[in-house]
């Protein structure tokens, strides 16, 4: 599939508001990829696909996650299952056979330890695209242009605080990703 065909397929699967978010993530992922030296084409591709299954009903997400063998202990809440499901279906649904793109799609919501550059770019782009509005997002946008790992670490902190304040479940992967990002920042290895 061409990028335009992928865009149209994703557009057909999402509400106008969710698709507008995806367009914002595509633009931000491309900008961050250019800034940090990630593959811009792969960043756009992962960004187009990342929320393809986001609006599926919970029962469909759960059924598909079971069928695909998604580890619920690591990914946790139903709301994050759209990432690993879309990643598992990249080849079948979009003709994309690329492990980097698959990982960026799979972990865009949760993060994970050992995230590659493309994964970090897409994960952060999802959190700071221009349509996002939540306390602290302007600071994260500013940080995103200066220090990718610090921006991710602070984004994970904000996300975890929000989930805990609302009594929501937290994906184990997010805690592990957060801790690793802060280790990179404190160890002077951040980008």
From TrEMBL:
Its EC number is 3.6.1.41. Residues 18-129 form the HD domain. InterPro entries: Diverse_Catalytic_Enzymes, HD/PDEase_dom, HD_domain, YqeK. One of its GO terms (molecular function) is metal ion binding. Keywords: Hydrolase, Iron, Metal-binding, Nucleotide-binding. It catalyses: P(1),P(4)-bis(5'-adenosyl) tetraphosphate + H2O = 2 ADP + 2 H(+). This is bis(5'-nucleosyl)-tetraphosphatase (symmetrical). It comes from Kyrpidia spormannii.
């Amino acid at each position: 599939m061409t990028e335009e065909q992928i865009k149209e397929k994703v557009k057909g699967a999402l509400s106008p508001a969710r698709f507008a978010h995806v367009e914002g993530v595509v633009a931000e992922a491309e900008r961050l990829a250019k800034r940090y030296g990630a593959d811009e084409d792969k960043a756009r591709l992962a960004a187009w696909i990342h929320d393809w299954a986001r609006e599926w009903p919970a029962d469909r997400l759960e059924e598909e996650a079971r069928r695909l063998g998604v580890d619920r202990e690591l990914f946790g809440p139903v709301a994050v299952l759209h990432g690993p499901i879309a990643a598992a279906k990249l080849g079948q649904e979009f003709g994309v056979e690329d492990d980097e793109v698959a990982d960026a799609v799979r972990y865009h919501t949760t993060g994970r330890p050992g995230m590659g550059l493309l994964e970090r770019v897409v994960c952060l782009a999802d959190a700071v695209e221009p349509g996002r509005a939540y306390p602290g997002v302007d600071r994260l946008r500013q940080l995103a242009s200066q220090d990718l790992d610090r921006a991710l670490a602070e984004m994970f902190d904000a996300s975890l605080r929000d989930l805990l304040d609302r009594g929501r479940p937290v994906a184990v992967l997010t805690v592990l990703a957060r801790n690793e990002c802060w280790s990179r920042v404190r160890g002077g290895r951040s980008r």
